[in-house]
Specification:
The chain is 41% helix and 13% strand. The chain is an alpha/beta fold. The strands form 5 sheets. A 10-stranded mixed β-sheet has the order 1-2-12-5-11-10-6-9-7-8. Strands 14-13-21-18-15-17-16 form a 7-stranded mixed β-sheet, sandwiched between helices. A 5-stranded antiparallel β-sheet has the order 25-24-23-22-26. Helix 3 runs parallel beside helix 4, helix 22 crosses helix 27 and helix 31 runs antiparallel to helix 34. It is globular.
Length: 1079
């Protein structure tokens, strides 16, 4: 068992004095006045347009317990009732046998740390309990995880650790998950401390400083290399540690934590977690040192959560600041959709087109190859649409919040193009005064003055200024980095009142707002369009409410009619996600560990000490307990004579399987089409839904097999039926007049309507042939025209009359007597079914009242025993063994490709791969050692190297030019070879997917840029965002430098010089403009 025998202690800290770290609470006279205006008013069914009285759009149930006649509070105003206390929970995990020798009068006890000594840093406010407890843990020289909501003040703890290191003349490393965040944090810490450096791969400033800010990837590389600089480090701060769950990059955090020397202490900053104790116990097990967790749910500024219906009006309070979900408001919200539909049906003709959809493309950028294109209307985010060509939903919300002085606002959208489209919808609104507009222009001009003159005049740059001057901003990864940073600075200075941003804005520096708006509740995560997780909602909504300025933060979620009450509750009140390991084996890690080959840090050690293995081992006792529970429950389900029950059950299964085969034989088109005439009665069964008897109208051949639009009913036959049915069975559609609500099976309820539903009507429905359960022996006359409702109702009356005449069931065609099927195998099948039906009728359990109950008991007992067996196997299949198997497979791949020899010693090729982290190390070194780069000039090298980097898909991808085509083909051939080797060595891999990841999307862009073309010209050749191109360019420069190091490792000096020239050819202009944070 790999889990720790860690002791844990817990305490709840008391309430502290009010925080006083900023300006006094902002005046809320506007909101109060609005509340005064709407006092005592019940919200109307359909709230008025924001042009009139915006406050009347707000639900008045924010204080359900208010006395009659009391004034409803506006969102953001204090409400009666007890506020959440400033408390925190403290835990500590201890290694076995640990005892503390610290003076308790100064440091308190290990389970109740309280520091009473001289502070390394003073604060102009009294620390909150979680901050004070964290400081006490740091002064004990012990690691700590601080988990708190966004904007709670976690940075104060990190700053204290840095101040301690400066006081004690030690070094400290501050890691962040993103380069942009590292730049921001560098600027922030440089204002607080004197000796701060920065290392991001793009920029290196004072790498020997006492405090160095770096990305986690840089720290891992330093640990692999055994950098001397790490010997002096006493503290490492991991910001946004919840990034460890990231599928692609999470392993970087895990490896870094494992490789850190045991005497280094760590500070982990995280959003709220549901398994914080599990994480600190892993740290204690790993480094044999105490690790504390300080956790708080306290929000300095309480939040009120509202819902806004798409295409409607009004805000509905869903969750008040005490965290209570108001169900009656959700019911009102649900009713508002029906009312909106009725109003729209009356106001808008059926063929009114698409008036009211949001603008599309890239915000109507003109003068650009992709500007001004219609696009998708941004989907309007759904939030972009407005009824009847009126103001869009976003416009309504922003204008209402503006009139209530709920600025600044962050409007979160999960799509970059929607952010720009929404911003353009506010073209008639101006939130800045004339003085503020002048200030924005001055800051803007100063910021872009670092750019070459030709880049200053780029449409992407110049078209942003008018927007910013009106107090509207856009922030997403597709923007030029310098514009993103400029917008961040303007937002912090209060010069941007409405910011449209993607979720990345919710991470990093503390940039809160008064109001946060969500334009959608679903997001694309790379695999599916899924609902937003509660953890994601907590992270982003936490930006609402500025400490010391707002009494309440406002969160507004735009929802559609598909939102259920349960889903809404889960999103707004759900628990934060646990921190789960995303550990995986990589060739980069394997080669570096093999090359290092010192001490305990071999590959198996890393696997055994991963958080992944730790979590698995912790689950074993719980799994064993569950196995005992399942076994006990199964033993209690003695159903009698098992052999008798099992025999009866087996006989029924056999009969069902043969009947399915019989049905498939009958439904062969060559046998049944002759009988499927118009007017014939057939029984339709769609999976588990019995649609009852219908009337055939027509039979036609299906044009496209597998097309879901080819039939409104898609049958889901049993596995046995699907296996037996001939392929041609699904190639015909039977147009059938059917009732449009599923019916109960057989028992006279074929036309039963769903409870509370509308009256059932007959409609012509295309039914796949496989869904025909029985072919009736009767036919009825059909009207010549079935389009009138009355004609179909007449058929329904006839059908009901016929079924009444046959109370025991409608007669069906006999396959032998009526359909003339005399095939020997078919007759043998019919005979076999007859015999088994006789056996079944003679079985002692056939008429037993308890037969079904006993069968269910037997089935349940079998399920319990199967689950117990599965869990037993799970406990035996240690993750360590699974990873060891994968390790052997990957080692064989490395041997076949020449990276290591038969004894596992890293060869020249492997040492070259050890320095490649930005691209695929196997493919880069394969091409390098095969001499593929030798025949390229440095411009072509830039173009080919761009294929190693992931980039977004383009709708305007240019074909690979003739001069680059041979080199690109060589790359793909090498990728196919590597994929085939991995598949042969049992690595789970899709060859096509692996090869296709090396796309030529930006080859032409970087080839032209390397040859000296202007930025304006190269971006006109693609529809990829400018910011994406710049980000790829900077990663490309990193890759080229890594390839230069790889060339040095194999002694190829000519390649070293070529890679240097390639790097120099792209390091110019706006692509490599200095960050505003490091100026």
């Amino acid at each position: 068992m790999g889990g720790p025998s860690a002791n844990t202690k817990r305490k709840r800290d008391g309430e502290a004095e009010p925080h006083n770290d900023g300006e006094s609470a902002a005046s809320e006279s506007n909101a109060a006045a609005a509340a005064e205006r709407s006092a005592g008013q019940e919200p109307p069914p359909s709230a008025p347009n924001p042009e009139s009285n915006p406050q009347s759009n707000l639900e008045s149930d924010s204080n359900p317990g208010a006395k009659p006649g009391a004034k409803p509070a506006a969102p953001g105003e204090p409400l009666p009732g007890k506020q959440a206390e400033k408390t925190c929970v403290h835990d500590v995990a201890l290694p076995p046998g640990f005892t503390s020798a610290l003076d308790q009068s100064v440091h308190g006890t290990i389970d109740s740390p309280v520091y009473k000594g001289p502070m390394a840093k003073s604060y102009p406010f009294e620390l909150d309990p979680f901050q004070a407890t964290s400081v006490a843990c740091l002064e004990r020289r012990e690691s700590v995880l601080v988990a708190a909501h966004t904007s709670a003040g976690k940075t104060a703890v990190a700053e204290y650790a840095i101040a301690m290191a400066f006081r004690d003349k030690q070094r400290v490393i501050y890691t962040s998950p993103l380069k942009a965040l590292s730049n921001q944090k560098y600027r922030e810490l440089s204002e607080e401390f004197s000796d701060v450096g920065l290392m991001t791969g793009d920029v290196t400033i004072s790498p020997n400083a006492a405090c160095v800010v770096m990305t986690t990837e840089i720290l891992r590389s330093m640990l692999y290399r055994g950098s001397e600089a790490l010997r002096e480090v006493a503290w490492v701060i991991f910001d946004e540690i919840h990034y460890m769950r990231d599928r692609e990059r999470g392993v970087v955090w895990e490896e870094s934590i494992i490789f850190l020397p045991p005497d280094v202490k760590m500070v982990f900053l995280s959003a709220t977690l549901s398994n914080a104790r599990e994480f600190v116990e892993w740290i204690t097990y790993l480094h044999k040192q105490p690790c504390h967790v300080v956790y708080t749910d306290y929000r300095p500024t309480p939040l009120q959560h509202f819902a806004f219906p798409y295409g409607g009006d009004g805000l509905y309070l869903m969750v008040n600041e005490q965290g209570k979900f108001i169900e009656k408001n959700f019911n009102r919200l649900a009713k508002s959709f029906a009312k909106a539909k009725e109003a729209a049906a009356e106001a808008i003709p059926e063929a009114a087109g698409f008036a009211g959809r949001g603008r599309g493309g890239r915000g109507g950028r003109e003068g650009r190859g992709r500007g001004g294109r219609g696009g998708r209307g941004g989907r309007g985010g759904d939030g972009g649409r407005g009824g009847g060509g009126g103001p869009s939903d976003i416009y309504k919300i922003v204008k209402t919040c503006s009139e209530l002085d709920f600025h600044p606002m962050i409007v979160f959208s999960f799509r970059r193009r929607e952010c720009e489209a929404y911003a353009m919808q506010l073209s008639k609104l101006d939130f800045n005064s004339e003085e503020e507009s002048k200030m924005v222009k001055e800051v803007f001009n100063n910021a872009i003055s670092v750019l070459p003159s030709e880049d200053q005049d780029l449409p992407a740059v110049r078209q942003m200024l008018p927007l910013l001057q009106r107090g509207v901003g856009v922030h997403h990864s597709g923007l030029l980095p310098i514009l993103k940073e400029l917008i961040e600075i303007l937002f912090q200075e209060g010069l941007i009142k409405v910011l449209f941003a993607t979720e990345t804005f919710a991470m990093g520096l503390n940039m809160p707002a008064r109001t946060v708006v969500f334009t959608a509740t679903h997001k694309w995560d790379g695999e599916a369009n899924r609902p937003m997780h509660s953890g994601e909602y907590i992270q982003m909504s936490g930006r609402a409410g500025r400490r010391g300025k707002d009494s309440k933060g406002i969160v507004i979620v735009m929802v559609n009619e598909e939102m259920t009450m349960e889903a809404c509750k889960e999103m707004m009140l759900g628990k934060p996600a646990p921190l789960e390991s995303s550990f995986r084996l990589t060739y980069y890690a394997l080669l570096n560990l093999m090359a290092r080959a010192e001490g305990q840090f071999n590959t198996e050690h890393v696997i055994a000490h991963s958080f992944h293995q730790f979590q698995h081992d912790r689950q074993v006792p719980e799994v064993e307990k569950r196995i005992k529970e399942l076994q006990a429950e199964a033993d209690a389900l003695e159903a009698g004579t098992e052999d008798e029950i099992r025999g009866y059950h087996t006989l029924r299964l056999s009969l069902a399987e043969k009947e399915s085969r019989l049905k498939a034989e009958i439904l062969r088109p060559d046998r049944c089409l002759h009988f499927l005439q118009p007017g014939r009665l057939i029984r339709v069964v769609d999976g588990l839904d019995d649609w009852g008897w219908g009337v055939i109208v027509n039979v036609m051949k299906q044009m496209s097999r597998g097309d879901p639009s080819s039939a409104l009913i898609t049958p889901s036959p049993t596995a046995s039926a699907a296996a037996a049915a001939p392929l041609s069975c699904t190639s015909y559609l039977v147009d059938t007049l059917l009732l449009c609500t599923p019916v109960e099976k057989e028992s006279g309820g074929h036309d039963k309507e769903k409870e509370g539903g509308t009256p059932a009507l007959m409609h012509v429905i295309p039914v796949k042939l496989a869904a025909v359960s029985r072919i009736g022996a009767l036919r009825i006359a059909l009207p010549t025209d079935l389009r009138p409702k009355e004609a179909r109702e007449a058929v329904l009356v006839t059908l009901r009359d016929v079924t009444k005449r046959f109370p025991d069931g409608l007669p069906i065609l006999d396959p032998v007597e009526d359909m003339g099927i005399h095939d020997d195998s078919f007759l043998a099948l019919v005979d076999s079914i007859d015999k088994e039906e006789q056996q079944l009728s003679k079985h002692p359990l056939f008429k037993a009242e308890t037969a079904e109950q006993k069968l269910e008991l037997l089935k349940r007992r079998g399920q319990l025993l199967a689950e117990a067996q599965r869990l037993k196997m799970k406990t035996r299949e240690s993750q360590l063994n699974l990873f060891k198997s994968e390790l052997r497979n990957r080692s064989r791949v490395l041997k076949r490709l020449g990276h290591i020899d038969a004894d596992g010693v890293v060869q020249l090729k492997g040492r070259a791969a050890c320095v490649v982290t930005t691209g695929d190390e196997l493919l880069v070194t394969e091409l390098m050692l095969e001499g593929a780069f030798n025949g390229m000039d440095h411009h072509q090298l830039v173009a080919v190297a761009s294929c190693f980097l992931p980039s977004e898909k383009s709708n305007e991808e240019q074909p690979v030019s003739a001069e680059l085509k041979p080199h690109f083909n060589t790359l793909r051939e090498a990728a196919q070879h590597i994929a085939q080797v991995q598949i042969e060595e049992k690595i789970e891999l899709d060859e096509e997917e692996y090869v296709d990841q090396f796309r030529p999307t930006l080859m032409h862009v970087f080839y032209q840029w390397s040859k000296g073309e202007s930025f304006g010209k190269v971006i006109d050749s693609t529809d990829v965002f400018e910011g994406t191109i710049v980000r790829v360019a900077r990663r490309l420069d990193e890759l080229l430098n890594e390839m230069k190091l790889a060339a040095q490792a194999i002694g190829e000096q000519a390649l070293v010089e070529k890679f240097s020239k390639a790097s120099e050819s792209i390091r110019r202009g706006i692509m490599f403009a200095n960050s505003l944070y490091v100026e």
